[in-house]
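ok new one. same drill as before - structure tokens go in, u give me an amino acid for every spot. 157 of them this time. try not to just spam alanines like last time pls lmao
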């Protein structure tokens, strides 16, 4: 079975790794709007990838079914908790959660993948969609605020 989502997920995982590797702890607390920092956006990604991982594991055991959630209420209620997580820990959680769900999806049976496809929710397989959205937002905020990554300054010396 062709699995283009695996390639897409890997590409955005690499972008995530690259960003996290380049950012200093001070840069992780850079505000990006709506009370969020770069670290909050990253731990937000970690949460949603973790949810996807546990949902996938549930589906393996019990079968695939819809799993609705109020995204805005979930994000708003978790914001204070996300802000309490040390920025470097938040960044590392984003990577480990992405690696875990990507691996699980890549190894999933064809039958399970087909059942997920039948839901008509592309993001369930393409975790890259959500990652790309937030990684693009982070880079756009950095650019719009003329924020130069401290790690990039070292390259000029």
């Amino acid at each position: 079975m062709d699995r283009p989502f695996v390639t897409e997920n890997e590409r955005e995982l690499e972008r995530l790794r690259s960003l996290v590797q380049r950012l200093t702890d001070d840069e992780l607390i850079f505000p990006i709007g709506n009370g969020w920092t770069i670290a909050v956006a990253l731990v937000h990604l970690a949460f949603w990838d973790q949810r996807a991982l546990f949902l996938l594991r549930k589906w393996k055991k019990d079968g695939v079914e819809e799993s609705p959630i109020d995204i805005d209420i979930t994000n708003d209620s978790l914001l204070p908790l996300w802000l309490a997580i040390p920025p470097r820990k938040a960044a590392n959680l984003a990577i480990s959660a992405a690696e875990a769900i990507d691996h699980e999806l890549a190894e999933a049976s064809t039958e399970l993948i087909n059942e997920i496809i039948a839901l008509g929710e592309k993001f369930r397989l393409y975790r890259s969609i959500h990652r790309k959205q937030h990684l693009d937002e982070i880079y756009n905020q950095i650019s719009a605020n003329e924020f130069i990554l401290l790690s990039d300054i070292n390259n000029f010396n």
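The domain at 4-156 is CATH 1.20.120.450 (Four Helix Bundle (Hemerythrin (Met), subunit A)). and btw The helical segments are 4-22, 25-28, 38-62, 71-84, 87-107, 110-119, 127-144, 150-156.
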